[in-house]
């Protein structure tokens, strides 16, 4: 319930007076509808169903009022008045519906943008823990439910307002009948609590199925090649079939629940009205006018009870979404990256890690980096080498401020810094990962993403640096070639070169390459090596490489093993250390 309250407060903050205005209009509408209800009585009187001798003191004034009108115009007046009331009510309904929708969609937009921003700002640890499909599912589906759920809560409030007004009118007409209807409604709602509980359960199931569906679809789309080459089509189709069937079953179960609840309320209404009329006639010798009142009050009040019950079931079904969205929002908040320090000066001579340790899981003793001390001289090239799983990527992620060290110190130009410093330094770093990502759109879109005011000349320069100019020139639309989903229209090597060009275009003082040329042929790799060589002394380059032939030009080499730096020094010096790990690595690769 706390989560629902949170979003109600949010919508209150978002819509402010507009919200009260809409709810006020709802009240006005119910008032007019109530008045329209009273209109039926003079109409019935006029057409002779009722006569003046009846004991209906409360509405006596309606008859007197009618008698003021000349007899020839009475019917015309009443019918015109009736049409006018319907017109006003329907116009108000339309207007309030639109206002409601504008609040609902506006709020959905706010919930989505706020959550999206929080997720973007959340640190790397948060993203490592979350499945990307779960995030997509929450942003796509669950936020929609929040908006509908908040709307259902507001509807419930308005219904309550509506109901209070209607109860007021009904009470004025006949307190006894009103109390009876209300009493019956409250009792029935009490015995219908299980419907709300089951709605919550089904909502939870709906969430889980949705999450699994999104994860499965993502997985299938990303792994379509694996599916085809491993002949997994039947298995995947079977999964899809079963899963969509489970979603159908859940939706049918919800529909069954709603219709059972509806059925129960309708039947109870009929039974109650029959009992009441029977009792009124048998024991109180009620007049036709009083019977009419019974029917009128029932027909006005009972649907309110049904609507409130319906809204509660709906809210119940949305409840898990409130919880999930709020949960991810809280997690993202708790893991928000600190604001970047506005003007961090570039390091002048040295970035140094002293005795740094880092573990992915604080619950275990397993350390990805253990007491690492390493120096990264500015405007020099540092190569990081080591076996798979040695901790090379983790070390780089730490340097980019993606991970915070659990222990140790960061020293820049001899000055101790907090780990936030690296975070602030991140805008000065460009990075090409092992598995570079191409965003949707054209080559131009991908390049201009990192530098908005960029000329074609600058783009071609960067492409040339990354040895990507030739293949881009051969593409049908050059820079404006659409790259498709994740750049699937490019080869692995072309993707790497394009992402390298994107990194170069940022013109940052630090360039970090994590196996960034692993998919290249030796020709293109050499071109890039040459380009990097040309930048020597102008840029700080940190490069992870498995192919040791590519790091000959490095000013220094760090050798990692089991999360520790086991050697650090110049390429040639380390190569000469006969019993050293680097020498062994070189020998294995016959470099
Ligand atoms: N997200 C993660 N969660 C938990 N453990 C991780 C995570 N990423 C890496 N590790 C672990 O941390 C250790 C170091 O991994 P890292 O990716 O830094 O190695 P690496 O030297 O870059 O390997 P490779 O050359 O294969 O890329 C490994 O034992 C790995 O299993």
Please render the helix and strand layout as text.
Blueprint: H1 2-15, H2 17-46, H3 60-67, H4 71-121, H5 124-129, H6 132-173, H7 175-191, H8 193-222, H9 224-229, H10 233-284, H11 288-334, E1 350-358, E2 369-377, E3 381-386, H12 392-399, E4 407-412, E5 415-417, H13 419-425, E6 429-432, H14 443-448, H15 456-465, H16 469-474, H17 492-505, E7 510-514, H18 522-534, E8 540-544, E9 556-561, E10 564-569, H19 571-576, H20 581-588
Parallel strand pairs: 3-8, 3-9, 6-7, 7-8
Antiparallel strand pairs: 1-2, 1-4, 4-5, 9-10
Helix pairs in contact: 1-4, 1-6, 1-11, 2-4, 2-6, 4-6, 4-11, 6-7, 6-8, 6-11, 7-11, 8-10, 8-11, 10-11, 15-17
The protein binds adenosine-5'-triphosphate (ATP).
Membrane topology: Multi-pass membrane protein
Subcellular location: Cell membrane
InterPro entries: AAA+_ATPase, ABC1_TM_dom, ABC1_TM_sf, ABC_transporter-like_ATP-bd, ABC_transporter-like_CS, P-loop_NTPase, Type_1_exporter
Could you characterize the architecture of this molecule?
With 591 residues, the chain is α/β, with parallel strands linked by helices. It folds into 2 domains: 2-334, ABC transporter type 1, transmembrane domain (ABC transporter transmembrane region fold, Up-down Bundle); 350-588, 3-Layer(aba) Sandwich (Rossmann fold), CATH 3.40.50.300. The chain contains 20 helices and 10 strands. It has a 6-stranded mixed sheet, sandwiched between helices. The chain has a 4-stranded antiparallel sheet with strand order 2-1-4-5. A hairpin with a 2-residue loop joins strand 4 and strand 5. Helix 4 (71-121) packs antiparallel against helix 6. The radius of gyration is 36 Å and the shape is elongated. The model has no long low-confidence stretch (mean pLDDT 84). Adenosine-5'-triphosphate binds at residues 128, 360, 368, 386, 388-394. Residues 128, 360, 368, 386, 388-394 line the site of adenosine-5'-triphosphate (ATP).
């Amino acid at each position: 319930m706390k989560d629902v309250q949170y979003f109600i407060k949010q919508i209150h903050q978002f819509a402010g007076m507009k919200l009260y205005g809409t709810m006020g209009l709802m009240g006005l509408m119910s008032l007019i509808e109530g008045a329209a209800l009273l209109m039926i009585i003079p109409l019935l009187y006029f057409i002779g169903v009722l006569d003046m001798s009846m004991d209906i003191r409360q509405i006596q004034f309606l008859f007197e009022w009618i008698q003021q009108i000349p007899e020839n115009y009475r019917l015309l007046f009443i019918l015109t008045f009736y049409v006018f009331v319907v017109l006003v009510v329907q116009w108000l309904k339309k207007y309030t519906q639109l206002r409601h929708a504008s609040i609902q969609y506006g709020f959905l937009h706010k919930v989505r943008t706020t959550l999206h921003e929080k997720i973007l700002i959340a640190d790397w640890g948060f993203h490592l823990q979350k499945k990307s499909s779960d995030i997509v599912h929450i942003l796509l589906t669950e936020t929609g439910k929040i908006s509908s759920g908040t709307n259902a809560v507001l509807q419930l409030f308005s219904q309550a307002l509506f109901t209070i007004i209607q109860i007021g009118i009904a009470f004025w007409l006949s307190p006894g009948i009103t109390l009876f209807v209300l009493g019956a409604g409250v009792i029935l709602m009490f015995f219908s609590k299980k419907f709300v509980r089951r709605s919550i359960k089904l909502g939870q199931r709906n969430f889980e199925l949705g999450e699994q569906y999104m994860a499965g679809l993502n997985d299938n789309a990303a792994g379509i090649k694996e599916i085809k080459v491993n002949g997994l089509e039947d298995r995947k189709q079977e999964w899809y079939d079963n899963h969509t069937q489970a979603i159908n079953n859940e939706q049918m179960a919800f529909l069954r629940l709603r219709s059972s609840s509806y059925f129960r309320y309708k039947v109870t209404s009929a039974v109650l009205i029959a009992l009441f009329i029977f009792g009124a006639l048998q024991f109180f010798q009620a007049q036709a006018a009083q019977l009419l009142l019974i029917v009128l009050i029932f027909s006005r009040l009972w649907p309110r009870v049904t609507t409130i019950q319906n809204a509660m079931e709906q809210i119940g079904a949305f409840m898990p979404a409130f919880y999930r969205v709020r949960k991810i929002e809280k997690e993202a908040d708790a893991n928000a990256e600190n604001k970047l320090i506005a003007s961090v000066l570039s390091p002048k001579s040295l970035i140094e890690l002293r005795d740094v340790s880092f573990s992915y899981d604080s619950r275990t003793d397993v350390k990805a980096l253990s007491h690492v001390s390493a120096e990264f001289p500015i405007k020099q090239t540092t190569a990081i080498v080591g076996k798979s799983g040695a901790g090379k990527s983790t070390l780089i992620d730490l340097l980019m401020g993606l991970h915070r060290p659990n222990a140790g110190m960061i020293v820049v130009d001899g000055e101790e810094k907090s780990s936030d410093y690296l975070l602030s330094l991140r805008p000065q770093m460009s990075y090409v990962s092992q598995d570079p990502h191409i965003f949707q759109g054209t080559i131009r879109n991908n390049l201009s993403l990192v530098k908005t005011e960029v000329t074609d000349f600058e783009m071609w320069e960067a492409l040339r640096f990354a040895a990507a100019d030739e293949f881009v020139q051969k593409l049908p639309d050059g820079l404006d070639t659409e790259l498709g989903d994740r750049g699937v229209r490019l080869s692995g090597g072309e993707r790497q070169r394009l992402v390298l060009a994107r990194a170069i275009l940022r013109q940052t003082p630090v360039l970090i390459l994590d196996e960034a040329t692993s998919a290249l042929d030796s020709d293109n790799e050499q071109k890039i090596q040459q380009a990097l060589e040309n930048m020597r002394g102008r840029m700080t380059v940190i490069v992870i490489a498995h192919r040791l032939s590519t790091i000959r030009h490095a000013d220094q080499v760090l050798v990692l093993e089991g999360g520790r730096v086991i050697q650090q020094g110049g390429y040639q010096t380390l190569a000469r250390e006969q019993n050293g790990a680097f020498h062994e690595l070189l020998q294995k690769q016959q470099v």
